[in-house]
Write a structure and sequence with these properties.
It is a single chain. The chain is α/β, with parallel strands linked by helices. The chain folds into two domains: 73 residues, no CATH class; 173 residues, 3-Layer(aba) Sandwich (Rossmann fold), CATH 3.40.50.150. The protein contains ten helices and eleven strands. Strands 1-2-3-4-7-6-5-8-9-11-10 form an eleven-stranded mixed β-sheet, with helices on both faces. Helix 7 packs antiparallel against helix 8. The chain is globular and about 55 Å long. The structure holds zinc ion.
Length: 331
């Protein structure tokens, strides 16, 4: 396996000095990275990071589930899990996949405090453009007056770096706002990732995270964890809360459950796909019920996902206080 400085590097990247200085060693966290012969390297621990498709691969190879060599040898971690297969289909199959994706993504908004709204309000209140880090960005882009760097473990247009949240390639206090939407379920060690978010945020910096609670496995092997509303709050205990709540309602959960029960009656892949599509149609009225239940705090106990929006603070919230924050149906 190729690692470090021995790798073949495919790059036409041109970086200016200021851009390079944004990146910090994800291995020792002790120095900014320098560029040398189209490789980024750490002058402190001598770790090397290749640049592929003009994107620096800033992964701590010895600790991450993502291998640096895979970005060179296999083109990275793209595929079905990241939705990139949809566009390769043609004709009826492509239409079917797109309709299925639209039906799957349909959900009643359960809160006005979305990632977009939180970031927009934050940027509005600032006289200087805030520095924003997006983790697990996928194809999501924000149209706000801010210096935004998009990171992910898969390539996508406009991505600033391939980075693993367990070892962020940025210096302490580098950002004013960090977004992690549908990310923390995919990391092996969520507390470690939140600790990294805390580290790279400036004092008074803000985080917005939305994470699944009652959701079936998605993205295959790269799906590890779920959080109850209080479990999610505890994860962010070194943040004071601005707002938190339900990101997806129980109607969405009911739709997923219907699909898991009915589609899995069939061992055949084709029948499972057909039944899944029928279930996606049947789940629309179930999802519409979230209109009625979204204001009921008891719905939090059966949410499909939860969000937390908060400000970085030095002191961790004690567990006894976290227990007191419960506001579901058993209150
Ligand atoms: Zn280093």
């Amino acid at each position: 396996m190729q690692t470090g400085c021995d790798m073949t590097i495919e790059s036409d990247a041109i970086y200016d000095e200021n851009h390079i200085l944004q990146f910090w060693c994800p291995v020792c966290h002790g120095s900014s990275l320098k560029i040398e012969e189209e490789t980024l390297h750490c002058p402190l621990c001598f770790a090397c990071f290749p640049v592929v498709r003009s994107i620096p691969i800033l992964i701590n190879d010895s600790k991450s589930v993502f291998a640096v060599s895979d970005y060179i040898d296999r083109g990275g971690y793209e595929g079905v899990a990241y939705g990139t297969q949809t566009d390769r289909q043609r004709g009826v199959r492509r239409l079917y996949r797109r309709m299925a994706q639209r039906l799957s993504e349909f959900a009643i908004p359960t809160s006005h405090v979305t990632a977009e709204a939180a970031l927009a309000a934050f940027c509005r209140d600032r006289s200087v453009r805030p520095r924003v880090l997006v983790l697990g960005a996928g194809n999501t882009r924000y149209d706000e007056p801010a210096e935004v760097i998009y990171t992910d473990v898969a390539f996508s247009p406009g991505i600033g770096a391939i980075a693993d949240g367990h070892d962020l390639p940025f210096d302490d206090g580098s950002f004013d706002f960090v977004l992690a939407v549908s990310v923390l379920e995919h990391v092996a060690d969520p507390p470690r990732v939140v600790s990294e978010i805390w580290r790279v945020l400036a004092p008074e910096g803000r985080v917005y995270a939305a994470t699944p609670f009652l959701q079936p496995v998605h993205m295959g092997a790269y799906d590890f964890t779920r959080f109850t509303p209080l479990g999610h709050r505890r994860l962010f205990r070194r943040f004071s809360e601005i707002d938190s709540g339900m990101a997806l309602g129980p109607g969405v959960v009911a739709g997923w459950s219907l699909r898991m029960v009915l589609a899995n009656l069939f061992p055949s892949r084709r029948w499972r796909a057909a039944t899944s599509f029928v279930c996606l149609l049947l789940s629309v009225p179930l999802k519409l019920l979230d209109f009625a239940t979204r204001r009921n705090p008891a719905s939090l106990d059966g949410a499909g996902g939860v969000y937390f929006y908060g400000t970085r603070q030095e002191v961790a919230l004690p567990d006894r206080e976290i227990i007191g924050l419960y506001r579901g149906g058993f209150s």
